[in-house]
């Protein structure tokens, strides 16, 4: 079992719809959770982080964390073609420690 | 803005050569990381450093070494390049206490022939 798992996709959503991405992790001691976006041919960039159970909203993005079920999700509302990218889930086991990345979910937003 | 730069965008080396990849960050970050990214395998951590002259092995350190003589510079060394080290290499940096908020360089596409 991989430490951090994501569906590789592609997740195809129509423009204006909600894209829902899921990520599960195996280590119950994980403390912090991050979503990175990576456009084709570019390097990853941080878009969201979440530390506590529940929802965290930032613009059109909402991160959701459920530590009991060991999953973290990312919702992209009003999806735009510019949201087409690979989204990487990353987990930090202890503060200041290294990240473990999932394989990423490719999202395609169709006009 | 944080800026992380890498010495080369593309690099072609021969099997057995010693290869140096350099990374420089300009935001006084304590932590620096080297990853490789391969299709289907995602981002994998090779080495990281949380201070000058300090280094820690990541998940796949075999065949690699690192050097951090100055806070802003972190070098990845392939002692004897092999074809299975053909990959995209990404450097990242972060502040202490914010290890997950990493800033990535543009990457170096290394091909070993």
Description of the structure:
The complex is a heterodimer of chains A (111) and B (113). Chain A is mainly β and 111 residues long. Chain B has 113 residues and is mainly beta. Chain B has no helices and 11 strands. The model of chain B has no long low-confidence stretch (mean pLDDT 93). At the A-B interface, β4, β5, β9 and β10 of A face β5 and β10 of B.
Task: Please supply descriptive tags for the structure shown above.
heterodimer; A: 111 residues; mainly beta; 6-stranded mixed sheet; 5-stranded antiparallel sheet; B: 113 residues; 7-stranded mixed sheet; 4-stranded antiparallel sheet
Q: What's the topology here?
A:
The complex is a heterodimer of chains A (111) and B (113).
Chain A: E1 4-6, E2 11-14, E3 19-25, E4 32-38, E5 45-50, E6 54-58, E7 61-66, E8 71-76, E9 85-92, E10 99-101, E11 105-110
Parallel strand pairs in A: 2-11
Antiparallel strand pairs in A: 1-3, 3-8, 4-5, 4-9, 6-7, 7-8, 9-10, 9-11
Chain B: E1 4-6, E2 10-13, E3 19-25, E4 31-38, E5 42-49, E6 56-57, E7 64-70, E8 73-78, E9 87-94, E10 103-104, E11 108-112
Parallel strand pairs in B: 2-11
Antiparallel strand pairs in B: 1-3, 3-8, 4-5, 4-9, 5-6, 7-8, 9-10, 9-11
Main sheet specs of chain A: 6 strands, mixed
Quaternary status of these chains?
A: heterodimer
Low-confidence stretches of chain B: none
Parts with pLDDT < 50 across at least 5 consecutive residues of chain A: none
Straight-line N-to-C gap of chain B: 37 Å
Distance between the termini of chain A: 36 Å
Q: Which chain pair has the greatest contact? A: A-B, 22 and 26 residues
Q: What is the H-and-E element order of chain B?
A: EEEEEEEEEEE
Strand content of chain A is over 45%
Radius of gyration of chain A: 13 Å
The biggest sheet of chain B, with number of strands, parallel, antiparallel or mixed sense and barrel status, is: 7 strands, mixed
As a percent range, the share of strand residues of chain B is: over 45%
Overall mean confidence score, pLDDT of chain B: 93
Q: What general form of chain B does the structure show?
A: globular
Number of helices of chain A: 0
Number of helical stretches of at least 4 residues of chain B: 0
Q: What integer is the average pLDDT of chain A?
A: 94
Outline of chain A: globular
Class from helix and strand fractions of chain B: mainly beta
Helix proportion of residues of chain A, in percent? Answer: under 10%
């Amino acid at each position: 079992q991989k430490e951090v798992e994501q569906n590789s996709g592609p997740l195809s959503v129509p423009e204006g719809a909600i894209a829902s991405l899921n990520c599960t992790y195996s280590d119950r001691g994980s403390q912090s959770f991050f979503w990175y976006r990576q456009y084709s041919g570019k390097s990853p960039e941080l878009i969201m982080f979440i530390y506590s159970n529940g929802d965290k909203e930032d613009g059109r993005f909402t991160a959701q964390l459920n530590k009991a079920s060991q999953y973290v999700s990312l919702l992209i509302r009003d999806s735009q073609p510019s949201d087409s990218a690979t989204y990487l889930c990353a987990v930090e086991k202890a503060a200041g420690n290294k990240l473990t990345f999932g394989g990423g979910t490719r999202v395609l937003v169709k006009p | 803005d944080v800026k992380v730069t890498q010495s080369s965008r593309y690099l072609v080396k021969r099997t057995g050569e010693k290869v140096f990849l350099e990374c420089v960050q300009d935001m006084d970050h304590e932590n620096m990381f080297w990853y490789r990214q391969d299709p289907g395998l995602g981002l994998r951590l090779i080495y990281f450093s949380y201070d000058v002259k300090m280094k820690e092995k990541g998940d796949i350190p075999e065949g690699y070494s690192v050097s951090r003589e100055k806070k802003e510079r972190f070098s990845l060394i392939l002692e004897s390049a092999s074809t299975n080290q053909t990959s995209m290499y990404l450097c990242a940096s972060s502040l202490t206490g914010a290890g997950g908020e990493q800033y990535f360089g543009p990457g170096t596409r290394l091909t070993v022939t």
